[in-house]
Design goal:
Helices cover 46% and strands 16% of the residues. It is of the alpha/beta class. Helix 1 crosses helix 26, helix 12 (388-400) packs antiparallel against helix 13 and helix 23 (651-672) runs parallel beside helix 25.
Length: 958
């Protein structure tokens, strides 16, 4: 018995237990042993994280695919897991230690600190997994993985060692994003560009051989900078090779102000003659662009800022080399001064010597650490790198050839742009939490990369015996006595970038590097669902690693979803106070309502504007379904054994079978094409409009009438169509559909494992041969022999039933629309005239007269050769019908009302167009504000069009 009221919280708790106890989501179920696999790997959320709206969208779309394919008979593996999130997790634990006034990690030591992190992970690290379960994610939770599990760590070490052996991992001194608070290199993804109001300083650099005078432009060259403190590390000035102003100066030197070092003027296209003075200072050790300019011209790299963001001048051999007398005193004065304090002092010193030409206000983007909030420093340091350019070549070719495709396809351009200009990937991080780099250093700095310490010791001993640094006897003694190894080889303290282990996720989670049955069966995966912001950081790297180590692409399709914004289109952020918590929405409206909202709004390439009212609306949709199922139950609707919908005799019942087949095809095709919004829209229309508003209403006279064969058939068909709805809706709203299936369908087994209403297309003999010969799945080809036998009704059509019931629906709908437009009260009954009706209409109208009169609020239905005077004429499926309204409405008053409403619409249109025509408004207003004005204009135009149509109809009644 269905409960009277729909209570999502009760259902969700109960259904979660049912799924878990029945192992519904387990991959490799015995009944799917011969089924074609379908694999998705979850983008592993940070172990520190909690469910946000991006997670909710991403995992809802993945779950729709998994539930859909599971119902289609596939052996589905949705691989779950979490990422260790190096910086984020280490920060959480360090903050916890500080708040509890306990010793910090340095005082605690590496081993004890890591014990504390693992302890925290055990206590709190599964929060987001439990939240994903609340969302209804149908992962195989028995296979949950963590990027620092023993097996995954083994894969990481294997990959590092092999890539190093191949020369694709190496150590180099390059610029990195350096966080001066966390004291580590960070990835581009962890850098936020923030608009800052600062200054642009125009500095005079004296030309060598000329007497400097602020009044003599020929004695200096002007450069502009936003970071005057880095000028101490300048090693060149760049001008454009075709800039006539500086052509004669190319190759000459300038004297670096305050420092006195001679630096060369070089010609480089990087300098833009149209910006500033056309000359730029080059500081290769403190700017990424300058680093490249310096490489092109062989300029020195002089680092003048240390790890903590302070000037580093004393004992700095690179800085002190070739300095004239007196510069040492300056170095002592500014040594260990914070970079921003130093900026002010250096500018003051430059001004006192006349080296500052002018200072202008300047708004520009400044990189900040997304976790520390500090300004990121480009820092020259020794780090480990991956030769990404070499690894990228096969990954580029795989997308160009179509082995992997992006949906929407326009994201392939983004992928290519980045991959074709890819830089070396910095993979080392100065942290303790993470995969420690498997490299050891000998006493002379010689590096030994190995999978284990024992292997590294063996390599080291062999090397130093060969170099005659130690003897064979000493080596044997050291190999046996661990105490004698202390200080002989020392392990690299750094850990690997989190993205390094994530890049292996599609195959490391399956047990690689061991040749496991899971690797053989579930790799490569089928689809990856992810956000556009990690195409570079995760998708591209999985492509590179998958092709290099598995010799196959890791996935055939990459579906890129958009952002979830607030209802006005603004990006959600804590600072704006517009963050919507998905857990709050689940608590208030249920997980199904949130999931359906996200799916219904997930149009390809378009950001989602999420309003709470939409979630509430889809909660009402769930209630509508609930009440329809209760109605069916109360009227004893059930599917009898052996019932075949295609053999129904009643026109209404054949019509619902026809509409069900049409919807099944639409939903199936839309999900296959990753058009989640179209699939959701189709099932929504079928449930609300076709089934609830029309079929059930039109069936009521039969269901409430005397017993008869027509009543028996209608009861069966009401229940059958309900069951088809539950199947089609299950991937979107799993909780309510599973509950209703259990209570009303009275079938054995779970809905989650029930057959989808439409079989996949039958492959050709050639395709079947390919499938049989393939080592892995060929998607989407599925042999019928590998699919559970299911009743396929999706080819059923009945144009005659659709024509008749469609005519009834269109007729009632248009009459209702006119009544609403003309403000006709519900209690006022109007007449209807069928003018010049066809034989079909004359034949079908009497069968539906009572229904049409009741639902359209009519007093009478008659036939005539022509529409009577003073009647509003409507065209219904090519035939004229007329509503005589003379004397029913006050035409003059109605025309006045419509004219007034049209005037309001015109005012709204004019107001919006005035704003949109203002170039200053469009340029300066927030994107979401401009979009809101466009939406207002479109809404007003649509409203005006409807009003004009109503006014035109009113003229007929005059």
């Amino acid at each position: 018995m269905i409960e009277k009221n729909y209570q999502p919280a009760d259902i969700e708790t109960r259904m979660s237990v049912v799924w878990e106890d029945s192992l519904a989501f387990k991959a490799g179920r015995p009944d799917r042993r011969d089924a074609v696999p379908f694999t998705i790997v979850i983008p592993p959320p940070n172990v520190t994280g909690s469910l946000h709206m991006g997670h909710a969208l991403n995992n809802t779309l993945q779950d729709i695919l998994c539930r859909f394919e599971r119902m289609r008979g596939r052996d589905v593996l949705w691989q779950p897991g979490t990422d260790h999130a190096g910086i984020a997790t280490q920060m959480v634990v360090e903050r916890q230690l500080m708040e509890r006034q306990q010793p910090g990690r340095r005082e605690m030591g590496r081993e004890k600190f890591l014990e504390r992190v693992w302890q925290w992970k055990a206590e709190s690290g599964d929060t987001i997994i439990n939240q994903l379960k609340r969302l209804g994610a149908s992962c195989d939770w028995s296979r949950e993985r963590f990027t620092m599990d023993e097996g995954l760590s083994k894969a990481v070490v294997k990959v590092f060692v092999e890539l190093h052996r191949e020369g694709l991992i190496y150590k180099d001194k390059r610029l990195v994003n350096w966080d001066t608070k966390l004291l580590t290199a960070i990835s581009d993804l962890e850098v936020q560009q923030t608009e800052v109001k600062g200054h642009l300083w125009y500095l005079r650099y004296p030309i060598e051989g000329k007497t400097f005078s602020p009044e003599d432009p020929a004695s200096f060259i002007v450069v502009a900078t936003t970071r005057p403190e880095t000028m101490l590390g300048d090693t060149g000035v760049a001008v454009h090779p075709e800039d006539e102003r500086y052509r004669k100066l190319i190759g000459k030197n300038v004297i670096l102000p305050l420092v006195g070092r001679k630096i060369q003027i070089v010609a480089d296209d990087y300098s833009d003659p149209e910006k500033g003075s056309g000359a730029v200072k080059v500081t290769p050790a403190h700017d990424f662009n300058d680093f490249e300019v310096g490489n092109r011209h062989g300029l020195r790299r002089i680092s003048v800022i240390d790890r903590e963001g302070c000037l580093d001048l004393l004992d700095n051999e690179d800085y002190l080399r070739d300095l004239p007398e007196g510069a040492g005193q300056f170095a002592e004065e500014f040594h260990k001064v914070d970079r921003f304090v130093a900026r002010k002092r250096i500018v003051e010193r430059l001004e006192s010597f006349g080296f500052v030409e002018r200072i202008e206000p300047h708004t520009h983007m400044v990189p900040h650490g997304d976790r520390s909030g500090t300004v990121i420093e480009p820092y020259l340091t020794d780090q480990w790198y991956v030769d990404a350019k070499t690894l990228a070549k096969p990954a580029i070719a795989a997308v160009r050839s179509g082995e992997t495709t992006f949906v929407p396809k326009n994201w392939e351009k983004t992928y290519f742009d980045w991959m074709e200009n890819i830089q070396p990937w910095c993979i080392s991080r100065q942290l303790w939490w993470g995969h420690q780099i498997p490299a050891w250093y000998g006493p002379d700095g010689k590096v030994f990369v190995a999978e284990t310490e024992e292997e590294a010791i063996s390599h080291a001993l062999g090397y130093y015996v060969e170099q005659e640094v130690i003897t064979v006897e000493q080596g044997r003694e050291m190999a046996l006595d661990r105490n004698k190894r202390e200080g002989f080889i020392t392990r690299d303290e750094d850990v690997l970038d989190t993205w390094f282990s994530s890049a292996l996720w599609p195959f490391s989670t399956l047990g690689w590097p061991d040749d496991t049955p899971e690797v053989q069966r579930y790799y490569p995966t089928n689809a990856l669902v992810t956000g556009f912001d990690i195409i570079f950081f995760w998708v591209a790297r999985m492509m590179m690693m998958g092709l290099h180590f598995m010799k196959e692409v890791p996935f055939s399709t990459v579906y890129i979803h958009a952002l979830v914004r607030d209802e006005k289109g603004a990006k959600m952020s804590k600072s704006k106070g517009n963050v919507i918590d998905p857990l709050n929405l689940i608590d208030e409206y249920g997980a199904d309502a949130l999931r359906f909202t996200l799916a219904a709004m997930a149009a390809q390439g378009r950001d989602i504007k999420l309003a709470t009212s939409r979630v509430e609306g889809y909660r009402n949709f769930a209630t509508k379904l609930w009440n329809a199922c209760r109605f069916a139950e109360m009227n004893h609707c059930a599917v009898p054994e052996g019932f075949e919908p295609a053999k129904a005799k009643e026109t209404l019942n054949r019509w619902i079978a026809h509409e069900s087949a049409h919807t099944t095809r639409e939903v199936t095709e839309a999900i296959e094409a990753y058009r989640f919004n179209d699939a959701a829209g189709s099932i929504y229309r079928f449930v609300w409009n076709v089934y609830c508003d029309w079929y059930v209403e039109l069936a009521k006279p039969v269901l409430l009438g005397p017993d008869s064969p027509a009543k028996d058939e209608t009861r069966a068909m009401v229940a059958w169509a309900r069951d088809e709805i539950l199947k089609l809706l299950h991937p979107f709203m799993p909780f309510i559909t599973e509950e209703l299936w259990e209570v009303t369908a009275k079938r054995d087994g779970l809905l989650a494992l029930a057959p989808w209403p439409l079989k996949p297309a039958q492959p050709s003999p050639e395709q079947l041969a390919m499938l049989a010969a393939a080592a892995g799945p060929i998607d989407p080809l599925i042999s019928p022999a590998l699919v559970m036998p299911i009743f396929d009704h999706a080819d059923f059509t009945d144009p005659k039933a659709e024509a008749e019931i469609g005519w009834v629906i269109d007729l009632i709908t248009q009459i209702r629309s006119v009544r609403a437009e003309m403000n006709i009260p519900p209690a006022t009954l109007t007449a209807l005239v069928l003018a010049s009706a066809s034989a079909e209409t004359r034949e079908r109208a009497p069968r539906w007269t009572d229904v049409i009169k009741r639902m359209a609020r009519l007093s009478d239905i008659s036939f005539a050769d022509r529409a009577p005077d003073g009647a509003v004429q409507l065209l219904v499926r090519g035939e004229v019908v007329a509503l005589p309204l003379k004397g029913v409405i006050d035409v003059a008053a109605e025309r006045t009302r419509l004219d007034k409403e049209i005037g309001k619409a015109d005012a709204d249109i004019k107001r919006a167009e005035s704003k949109l025509a203002n170039e200053k408004f469009v340029a300066n207003a927030a994107e979401e504000i401009v979009e809101e004005e466009r939406e207002k204009r479109e809404a007003a135009l649509a409203r005006k069009a409807k009003l004009l149509e109503a006014l035109e109809r009113l003229k007929q009644a005059s």
